[in-house]
Amino acid sequence: MTHIPHGAAASPPWSVAITPESAGWTYAGLRVVDLPAGTLEFTTGGEEMLVLPLAGSCVVECDGVRLTLHGRTSVFEAVTDFAYLPVEATVRIIGEGRLALPSARASRRLPVRYGPADRVPVEVRGAGQASRQVNNFCAPDTFDCDRLVAVEVLTPGGNWSSYPPHKHDTATDTEAVLEEIYYYEGGPGYQRVYGSHDTLAEVGGGDVVLVPHGYHGPSMAAPGYDLYYLNVLAGPAEQRSMAFCDDPRHAWIRSSWTGRPVDPRLPATRAGRARSTSSGGTP
Fold it and tell me: Is there a contact between 96 and 57 (Cβ–Cβ < 8 Å)?
């Protein structure tokens, strides 16, 4: 199943529980929990994880380290701080709110770490109605993990992101093999996936789209409704990468952005280093 509607992947206490096994692949996973004021305890097993507040704040205890995540009111209000959790760890979270835990099957055990919001690179990509904001909090060149890659994308109402459509399912000098998860807040919006299978789904808060292979994009935010998605990616390569290949039919779109203004609604949130690009990146 490519499109998983809100609630269809719930497994208490998780409102979303995507494991490599349930997704039918090898590496990428995601859990989301709506935590009432209280405590959540779990073990990471063979997966490295992040604790990323979507709404609310919490304290994370792991391997004798105690981290306070100040969080945010919502994904549309601010960039957030986050925590890294290693494989084979026992974790205790105390707090209240909606928390996302992107994950990847990993082999190296790295230390527990804190990712401050003011060090998250905030990037505006595209131009015109293809303008979107990417929060590169766990991109390959911004935060060290074994296999896990995760970024956030904010698409203003009426705009397209994940555009032009692209894929990363073939190992070449310019493309990496990656499993990918889209998790949404806000909306409604629409997500396209095509290639070996074809999906065009209406998506909104709590929905998930899995991309095992094939082209994906665009992600379309309906006019009047901003769309957020969390991308979780992981694959077999020793070197983490987000390398991609555009659909050749639509690759020309990138050159059309040259000289065009970025949507003035962006950046919508800001915490760290901000930059604008018209040609790079996939989200």
Answer: yes
Report the number of secondary-structure helices (H) and strands (E) in the chain.
Answer: 2, 21
Question: What gap in Å lies between CA 52 and CA 62, rounded to an integer?
Answer: 15
- Rounded to whole angstroms, how far apart are CA atoms 14 and 121? 29
Whether the Cβ atoms of residue 125 and residue 25 lie closer than 8 Å to each other: no
Please state the pTM of the whole predicted model. 0.95
Phi, psi (deg, nearest 5) at residue 103? -150, 160
- Is residue 30 classed exposed, middle or buried when 0-12, 13-18 and 19+ CB atoms within 10 A define those classes? buried
pLDDT digits (tens, 9 = 90+) for 156-197: 999 999 999 999 999 999 999 999 999 999 999 999 999 978
How many structural domains does the chain have? 1
Exposed, middle or buried, 248 (CB in 10 Å: 0-12/13-18/19+)? exposed
Residue 282 lies in a domain: no
- Residue 185 structural domain: 3-267
